[in-house]
Amino acid sequence: MAARDLFGMEMLELRHVLDEFELPKYRAKQIVEWLYHRGAADFEEMTNLPKTLRELLAAEFVIGKPTLRDRLDSSDGHTTKFLLEYADGTAVETVLMRQPYGNSICVSTQAGCNMGCVFCASTLHGMARSLTVGEIVGQAVYINDVLREEEQGKVDTVVIMGSGEPLMNYDNVLGFMRFLHEDYVLGLGYRNFTLSTSGIVPNMYKLAEEGLPVSLSVSLHAPNDELRSEIMPINRKYHLADVVAAAKHYADTTKRRVTYEYILIDHLNDNEEQAEELVSLMQGQLASVNLIPINPVKERNLLRPSKARIEAFEKYLKNHHVNVTVRREMGTDIQAACGQLRNKHLQEPG
Ligand code: SAH
Known about the structure:
Layout: E1 4-5, H1 11-20, H2 26-37, H3 51-60, E2 61-62, E3 67-73, E4 79-85, E5 91-99, E6 102-106, E7 110-112, E8 127-130, H4 133-149, E9 157-160, H5 170-181, E10 193-197, H6 201-208, E11 215-219, H7 225-231, H8 240-254, E12 258-264, H9 272-282, E13 287-293, H10 307-319, E14 324-326, H11 340-347
Parallel strand pairs: 1-2, 6-9, 9-10, 10-11, 11-12, 12-13, 13-14
Antiparallel strand pairs: 3-4, 4-5, 5-6, 7-8
The protein binds S-adenosyl-L-homocysteine.
S-adenosyl-L-homocysteine binds next to β10 and β12.
């Protein structure tokens, strides 16, 4: 049997596990302190535990934290992209954005993705597998450790917007948020999480029922079914109107404003007629639109619109009272478009 992983294990279970070895409960507190606040990657480092106990733990358990495979820092120093690797060799991307309001991280929920969106690098090689709670937690704790070591504070906000479709890995993504929320882990408030989905309708309703004030982002990218199905194949299963209805339900239930992400792609979804359709979709919603000029992915022949076209689209929305922002660019010089760094390593292993 594979050794059990203590990383990402809930306190109750950890106590239970330690109980089996007749270890006192306070040991659990010491262990979580090492795992989530003191950067320990193995039991040897846990110097306030007796040596015999460290040896016993090392014989019975593992600490399934990811290790660093690559790191890219943007030239302005604001954005850092990490390629993190788990014990089985699976690697995922996690991005740190040092924002004026704090440190924000973007985590992956699956290795690769099988949604097939045409603009996205994460989906080019399909999906290897979904990540466990501990593996997603590992990304956040890894970066929190880096921030502490570099004396830059801690993780303040989390966007679940990296590779993968979070609502296709529902239980583990929920488990991840609940775990990070615990005081003995990072103690992050649910308001500090944003989950982004391509529109897995039944699970959007399910999420609304959880009673957590998590922000929801919906990847829209087109204002009608025909174009959306072309850009995002998942639209053939969950149609635009149903996605928008589910998002509206989420906003009504949680009283949290929903954000629609709309990647602007030159002469594909950025003309005035499409802006007009988008305006009618937004009527009567507690929502805002985030326009994202595409980061062109070299395998795809999709281009970024000119500045004039981007501004015209934004202006049309503004003039029609849609709450709109254009996403500030971060880290284009470090292949920060979803999935690009991982792909580079898939192509040139090692
Ligand atoms: N599956 C989820 C989360 C991952 S993709 C979802 O679809 O929402 C989330 C976001 O990554 C997209 O909405 C978009 O904002 C961004 N993104 C992905 N590829 C991009 C690209 N080539 N250029 C700009 N943004 C991109």
